[in-house]
Each structure stands twice: as structure tokens, then as C-alpha cells.
Amino acid sequence: MAQKSTLVEHYNKYARGIQHFIKFFLGGPVKPQDYPLSSMPEELEALYWVDQQSQAIMAQLNRLRTALTEKTVAEQDFFVSQAEKEIRQKIPLPPFHPAQKISDLGRGQPITLQVQGDVERELAMAGISQFTFEWEVAKDQESAWNSTVVQVIGKKAVDWLRQAMKIIDDESAQAPAIINCWLQSKSQELRQFQGMRLDQYTEVKSKKATKAQYQRCRKKICEAHCKVADGVFQNNHQLAVVLEDKDCHSNIEDAPGNVPPVSLFPPWRILYLTQILHHLDSMAQDQATHYKTIETNNQVYGPSARNHGKYVGRTTGVAQNWPIDCYNQTFWEGLGKYQQDIISTVPPINIQQIAENMGKMCGKTRPAAPSGLGDQGTSSCG
Predict the structure, then answer these.
(1) Contact at 8 Å (CB) between 136 and 183?
(2) Contact at 8 Å (CB) between 115 and 123?
(3) What percent of the chain has pLDDT over 90?
(4) Are 278 and 366 in contact (CB under 8 A)?
């Protein structure tokens, strides 16, 4: 339960402020290559600097007290206290090396030089010579370095955020969990990409961003199909089940160069269902009136090449429990009775008649493909 609530809190303003605070002291990194490397072995040895210095001071004071055995107790206490002050004044603070500044973090609550110096002194006193993490530590492993950094930076981040917002005790107690959640996610990213060349990383991120964009477009198209179909097919529950299935909608793949993306039709899907989907696309675009909605539709329904998706064979990757006339007839007849029963035993819904009725309702609509036969080929079904 605590972990679940922490994950929810991970995305609110308070959590984003903590992440902003962390990234500031990391130098404002933008790419994984910008993040400071993990702490070195010699830095880990100095982690317990305060404890080590305290033990050394106590040893010196004990030797001094032994040498003053002939003095009274009051005189011993006086000389020992004076010696302790002198010893502590002569102990230099351990060096702290700020991270190299990579970029400004944009707008937000400013972090003053006073706050910055206070954080750096606190980290130095804790034996942290530079602000970084042990990125290689797995989720289920303990790291004294990471625990110390999380403790110090969590407290200082909460103090800094309290200057601009009200933070209750329950929220302040969540700071270490929020930092650890961010640390686990960022460590996984750095382990994967930090050692990669910048051009390779840029290419990988570009492909991921493009894929995510296509997935968002596909989701919007699916939602638009269902919204329009709710008004057109109010009593056709079996068709509603098909339209709500993500496998009903064409997948999208990136194309090389400046070529538009490729819409991949499932080769086992009947052409009439494809026609219904294109009619729903047309109706969704016709309903748009706001210029922003029209602009979004132009991006989502923009022209793209169309092709058949890869068919692995038999029942692999085929949507199940659709009405049997929603499947390509050549594909369906090529299956054995056993495979057919695995895929679907749902009675047909006369998908051809539904497509023809929608064609009459919509009139001349946008073509499904340049040839108008984007889903009729069967050579890829084998």
C-alpha cells in the first residue's frame, strides 16, 4: 500500500520539485552521457568521514585526560574542552567537487547560492565528495553511498520546497521514497545508455519517440472509432467488441528517410472490416469543428503507405473471439477445424452488409489505399 501511494505521489508537483532539486546538483544533465559517473572506491572509503574524525578526536582527548591525572577533575574538564575546540578548528572540511554545469533547468523556484553552499557542506560532512549515485547498484541491493545521499538531499530538498509551498509531515516523509523511485528508473536508463555513443543514443531515442508517437496516434484512432460507432451501431454488441479490440486497428511502423509511416493491416482481417474502419475515420474527421481538433486529425489520419503486417502462421498473433466473417475468407479456409475453434466460434454478423450500409451512409469517402485494395491481397497470409 505504501509503495502504491508513493508511485502516485511520484508525479505531483512536490515530487517534481524534488527531482528538479536533484538534477540541479547533478549539473542539469540532459542526456545519459551528461550524468556524473558512479562514485570511485576511494570516495567510498571517505564516506564515514565524520565517524572517523570523531574517533580520532576522542582518542586524542583520552590521551590528554590521562596525562592530566594529577589535576583536579574541574581542571581536567577545562583543559580537555579547550583542546577539543582547538582540534576541531584545525580540522579542514573534506573537499567537495560540484558537478559540471551542463544546462539550465528552465523556470522554477530558484536555488540560491546560500542553499547550494548549505547542501554542499552537508554532503561533505557526510563524507560525500561529489553529488552522484552508485548507478550500478541493483534495486534489491543496499548502498551506503546512495542511502547517505538520499537522506541528505531529501531533507534539504524538503527545506527548500517549504519556502514556496506548504508541505505536511506525511509528504516530507515521502521524500526518500520519491528519490529512490526516481533513482531506480534513472539507474536503469544509465546502465543501458550511458556507455553508448551519443549518435547511437540519439538514434535509439528517436526510434523510441517515433514508436511512442505512433502508438498514441493508434490509440486516438481506436478511441475515435469507438466513439463514432457508439452512435452508429447502438445495438450491434458483437461489432462493438471487435472495435474495442486493439488488434482490430492497423499497426503503424516507421519508414526510412522522409517516407510517410506505413500502416500495417493484419492479413487475416476481412476487407469489409477495413472499409468500416475507414468509414469511421471519415465520420470522425467530419465531426471535427474546432481548429485544434482538425489539426490533430490531419496528423493522426495523415497520408501513409499501407501494407500487410507479417503473419507468423496458424493461430499466432490472430485476434480471437471475433465473429467469423470478420476474418479473411482465404485465411479462414486455410485453417483446420481445430485452429478455427481456437480462434473463434462466434456466429457471423453479416459484416459485408454492414460495410455496404456504411458506404451508402457516408457516400464517397477517403480511399482505403491508393489502389482501393489495401486489404485484399492474400499472398502474405501463407
Answers:
(1) no
(2) no
(3) 20
(4) yes
User: Which DSSP state fits 154?
Assistant: H
The terminus-to-terminus CA distance of the chain in angstroms comes to 49
Question: Taking 50 as the threshold, does the pLDDT of residue 5 lie above it?
Answer: no
pLDDT of residue 118: 92
- Retrieve residue 301's grid coordinates: 489520419
The count of other CB atoms within 10 Å of the CB of residue 230 is 11
Check whether 122 has a pLDDT greater than 80: yes
- Evaluated on CA atoms 266, 271, 277, 278, the torsion sign reads positive
Identity of the amino acid at 199:
D
Q: Which three cell numbers stand for residue 177?
A: 521514497
CA–CA dist 10, 176 (Å, integer): 11
**Where residue 10 falls among pLDDT bands split at 50, 70, 90?**
very low
The C-alpha atoms of residue 32 and residue 379 are separated, in whole angstroms, by: 45
pLDDT at site 43:
74
- What's the rounded Cα separation, in Å, for the pair 161 and 171? 11
Instruction: Supply the DSSP string of 201-243, one letter for each residue.
Output: HHHHHHHHHHHHHHHHHHHHHHHHHHHHHHHH-SS-HHHHHHH
Cα(325)–Cα(273) distance, rounded to whole angstroms? Answer: 9
> Can you spell out the DSSP letters for 6-26?
HHHHTTSHHHHHHHHHHHHHT
Q: Mean pLDDT, the chain, as a whole number?
A: 79
What per-residue string of b and e applies to 34-67 under the rule 16 or more CB within 10 Å gives b? bbbebbeeebbeebebeeebeeeeeeebeebbee
Contact (CB, 8 A) for 308 and 269: no
Domain-wise residue ranges, the chain: 2-193, 201-381
- Report which of 127, 130, 109 is spatially closest to residue 27, judged by C-alpha positions: 130
279 SS3 class: helix
What interhelical angle do 175-193 and 2-9 show, nearest 10? 70
Residues near 149 by Cβ (< 8 Å), separated by ≥ 6? 123, 128, 131, 132, 133
Angle at 19 between CA 18 and CA 24, to 5 degrees: 100
The span from the CA of 6 to the CA of 4, in Å, is 5
**Burial grade of 257 (CB within 10 A; 0-12, 13-18, 19 or more):** exposed
